[in-house]
Design goal:
The protein is of the alpha+beta class. It has 11 helices and 8 strands. The radius of gyration is 26 Å and the shape is elongated.
Length: about 375
């Protein structure tokens, strides 16, 4: 077995028990959520929440188990980011550059040992990013330069929208070499002279992600921390976008949670209401429940599975129903239902009322509903 082959099995972590993994961080997520609104109101950067996450090893969840990490899979990482975004949407965004760099080192481990970086992640080191430039920058051009000065590489340039770098121990910096013009990634230590990190982001969007200006004035980068950009992990663009999607899903969940909390606390009712409390009013439940399906995260399609050639058992049908996830019925469902005399599944809402009509009769007991049609109830199951 070659040295390269020895590293391939550990290049990407394949997953662990998600509930056990998430249980480590959920108490921290709750603490983060408790102060999120105040931080947003006062525009206070989340230094303390970032510290909590560092101390808990959140930045190392993708490090392979063989090296002391949690061995979380990519879907598990994004599920954690969704939960974190539900607590404070700024934090997954602030850690976006860190997890991208971790992913790059995991991929690099297939061809060269990354033990040093794995240990840094386990020790709590976080990585920010410095890629974006403004001004007269043409497509494919990078103004920031890495040049050889004596026996050291030095970085000079200015970056903008350096998300998360103000909280970081390292910065993942995109630049070009002066000698060859080649694109490189420089992993730069933050604690050294010549680096200025500013919290000067005043644009739209999230305000406490630390997305300010970074200035690099003759900053040192070690030889072993200068990487050819051509070796960068190939799915990085998709990775970056998935982090943003995780932020959106978590934000949507938080919105649904907050709406429900406000309705639950409401004591005033209308004379034409359908219940003694607003939270029990079917029409209010229907309206409040409408946003519920929208922020659902992408999950493994356990409920989308081909029907067996033989008559499906009720256990098979039950497996097609995942709590809080709407089923997708196959195109040939009507024919299969007629052939195997399957239960009558309907996507008609079993809601007892409508925003435009009076109350409806109860739905059949074996009705399968679409989430959101009856926001106050879980999906029905076949009997």
């Amino acid at each position: 077995m070659t040295a390269q082959q020895q590293h391939i099995p550990h290049a990407l972590s394949n997953g662990t028990d998600y509930e056990q993994l998430a249980a480590r961080f959920r108490p921290i997520f709750s603490r983060i959520a408790a102060g999120a609104l105040e931080r947003e109101r006062t525009r206070s950067l989340p230094y303390e929440p970032v510290k909590w996450l560092k101390e808990a090893g959140f930045g190392a969840v993708r490090v392979p188990v063989q090296y002391g990490g949690a061995g979380a899979s990519l879907p598990q990482l994004f599920q954690l980011l969704i939960e974190l975004a539900e607590a404070d949407s700024n934090l997954p965004q602030a850690l976006r550059g860190h997890f991208a760099f971790v992913e790059d080192r995991l991929n690099a481990h297939a061809s060269a040992p990354q033990d040093v970086w794995f240990k840094r992640f386990l020790d709590g080191d976080l990585v920010g990013n410095a890629w974006t430039e403004v001004g007269a920058v043409k497509l494919g051009q990078v103004i920031t330069r890495v040049s050889r000065q004596g026996d050291q590489w030095r970085v000079n340039g200015t970056k903008y929208y350096s998300t998360g770098s103000i909280f970081a121990d390292w910065i993942d910096l995109y630049a070009q070499r002066d000698d060859t013009g080649g694109d490189v990634i420089a992993a730069v230590r933050v604690q050294q002279p010549g680096i200025t990190l500013s919290d000067d982001w005043d644009g739209f969007g999230q305000r406490t992600t630390g997305s300010g200006t970074s200035v690099f004035d003759n900053v040192v980068v070690e030889d072993e921390n200068l990487f050819d950009f051509a070796t960068r992990f190939k799915y990085q663009t998709a990775f970056y976008q998935l982090v943003l999607l995780a932020v959106l899903v978590g934000s949507g969940r938080a919105a649904v949670r907050d709406i429900a909390d406000e309705v639950r606390k409401r004591t005033r009712i209308f004379s034409t209401g359908n219940a003694a409390a607003a939270s029990d009013d079917a029409q209010v439940q229907q309206v409040v429940g409408k946003p519920r399906p929208k922020p659902m995260p992408p999950r493994p399609p356990r409920y989308v599975q081909p029907l067996p050639r033989s008559a499906p058992t009720r256990a098979t049908l039950a497996r097609m129903q995942t709590p809080s996830v709407p089923p997708t019925l196959p195109p040939n469902w009507s024919r299969l239902k007629a052939r195997w005399s399957l239960p009558s599944w309907s996507c008609a809402p079993p809601a007892t009322c409508s925003t435009r009509s009076a109350r409806r009769p109860p739905a059949p007991a074996n009705c399968l509903t679409v989430i959101g049609a009856t926001p106050a109830q879980p999906p029905h199951t076949t009997r």
